[in-house]
Structures are given as C-alpha cells and as structure tokens.
Amino acid sequence: MALAAAVDGHNRKCNGFSYSENTKVCLLSPFGLNYDEDFDYYERNPDSVVVEVKVKDPKTGKVVLIKKEEPSTLDGV
Description:
- With 77 residues, the chain is mostly beta strands.
- It has strands spanning 16-20, 25-29, 49-56, 63-70.
- β1 (16-20) and β2 (25-29) form a beta hairpin.
- The two termini are 26 Å apart.
C-alpha cells in the first residue's frame, strides 16, 4: 500500500511542516529545509522527563516506586 503525499491548493508536495503546541496549529510548506554552508547549526536536546519505575528492593524483597530522570526523545514518545 503506497502512502499519498500531501499537496497544497497549487498541487505542490509537502516538503516541510511546522507545529505550534501552544496554538495547536500545523502548517505545511512546499519548501524543504536548507542550510547555509557558512552557518553552524546545533540542535538543543529536549529536557529529560521524570518517570516512576517499580523496582524490587534487594534487602526487603518488596516492590517500591522510585522516580528517575530519563532522556526525552525528539518525537516526544
């Protein structure tokens, strides 16, 4: 099964998108991402997230909840 490419009103394919979490707006763009060869580009790593994990205490054998930080993925999953 082939996936259909998104196109705009002028039948241009989608080569990029932008999403604002604050306004819940997604914008499609027919233009791809370009980088200037004379410019240094860096991405910031997303903040880590605190998760609760069940672990067995080796001394008592009881299951306890601990909180630990895990790195967040770029796709938020």
